[in-house]
Design brief:
Blueprint: H1 3-22, E1 30-32, E2 49-59, E3 69-73, E4 76-80, E5 84-95, H2 98-114, E6 117-118, E7 133-137, H3 142-152, E8 159-169, E9 174-179
């Protein structure tokens, strides 16, 4: 499964369980979806749910960019590209009647306040390439919020915006091979 989809789907399932434990219902609480389709029509899976919507992807520039080498057999090492770390911006949009929406968004905030970081220990289905997902509450001013709602193609309902930090992307391709460092003649 693709890395972004795996990460978001694992968190969606965990949030869905949390909301269902607090307020059981016959249907899922959380949908990983758009609110409207490409034609501007409501997406049936998103109706009466907390919609988890990927609003943006950015490159994390704070991480080190050194080029690591890994053993590739014998006395040779493979030079591989460093991982690219990305951040996801995820909107949780309560596509429910207003009072129910306020309750669902409050519970969503509570969920991420209690569990701001996910690892394979507390999110077993998480892809092995992902060491950690950190959810950081992100403020949007009224203009930014208007842009996000426009991106979503809908009117405002209670929502909360999170930055999901440090999702690694690592290519498997080897850039080159280098021999192992040998000691100097004086060391022999």
């Amino acid at each position: 499964m693709m890395l972004i989809l795996n990460a978001l789907e694992c968190v969606r399932q965990r949030l869905n369980s949390f909301l269902h434990n607090a307020n059981p219902r016959n249907d899922e609480w959380v949908a990983l979806s758009n609110v409207l389709d490409q034609k501007g029509q409501e997406v049936p899976e998103a109706m009466d749910k907390v919609v988890m919507f990927l609003a943006n992807i950015t490159h994390e520039t704070i991480q080190s960019t050194y080029t690591p080498t890994i053993p590739s057999g014998g006395s040779r090492y493979a030079v591989v590209s460093p991982p690219l770390y990305i951040n996801l911006y995820v909107l949780f949009y309560a596509n429910l009647a207003y009072k129910a929406a306020l309750g669902a968004i409050s519970a969503t905030i509570s969920f991420f306040q209690q569990t701001p970081t996910f690892t394979r220990d507390n999110l077993p289905g998480l892809d092995p390439q992902i060491d950690k997902l950190a959810f950081e509450f992100t403020n949007l001013d009224i203009t930014e919020l208007n842009y996000v709602m426009g991106l979503l193609g809908t009117k405002y309902l209670p929502s909360v915006y999170y930055k999901v930090r440090l999702l690694p992307f690592q290519a498997d391709a080897m850039m080159s091979q280098v021999p192992a460092a040998q000691g100097s003649k004086n060391d022999r």
